[in-house]
Amino acid sequence: MNLLLICIMEIQADIKEKLLSTAKSFLKEQISNLEKELKELQQSAEADEKSSAGDKYETHQEMLNQSRTILEKRLSSSKTMINQLNAVPVKETKTVEDGSLLKLPMGNIWVSVPFGKLDFEGTAYQLVSPDSPLIQAIWGQKEGSIATFRDKSFEIEKLV
């Protein structure tokens, strides 16, 4: 195999490893912040129990419960994404599949988890689930293939 091609493949695999590491770091920080917010919310609720009474207290407690529910859902989602990231392959792919890194006219996409936009080394990447409608529409396609999504045709410019 051509030495240049081998170097390019290693660099591209390295990008996936770095994206994986960056996404995990971001999610770990998010988990830590959410756990801190939940702890502060609990402390606030305990302080209110000692000093409040009546309708105002009940309204405030309900607001705290709603906030707690939202934070717990976000925390659960972040933990699930970390677990899913651990299962994403970082090997080279020849077709669009789990772990593929794509260059499309609309941007760079890593088929991994429904994380959203991640800026890495000056380049934006969208981390999307294999279940996303776009990925389902192009699943199994090869680099250079013309794909159609929502009545628009485009080329899969690069596939790693």
In short:
This protein has 160 residues and is an alpha+beta fold. It contains three helices and seven strands.
DSSP helical segment count:
3
Count of strand segments: 7
Strand arrangement within the widest β-sheet reads 3-4-2-1-7
- Average pLDDT figure: 85
Walkthrough of the structure:
54% of the residues lie in helices and 19% in strands. The protein is of the alpha+beta class. It folds into 2 domains: 3-86; 101-159, no CATH class.
Which helices and strands occur, and which strands form pairs?
Layout: H1 3-51, H2 55-86, E1 101-104, E2 107-111, E3 116-120, E4 123-128, H3 133-138, E5 146-149, E6 152-155, E7 158-159
Parallel strand pairs: 2-4
Antiparallel strand pairs: 1-2, 1-7, 3-4, 5-6
Which key terms come to mind for this protein?
5-stranded mixed sheet; 3 helices; 54% helix; 160 residues; two-stranded antiparallel ribbon; 19% strand; disordered N terminus; alpha+beta
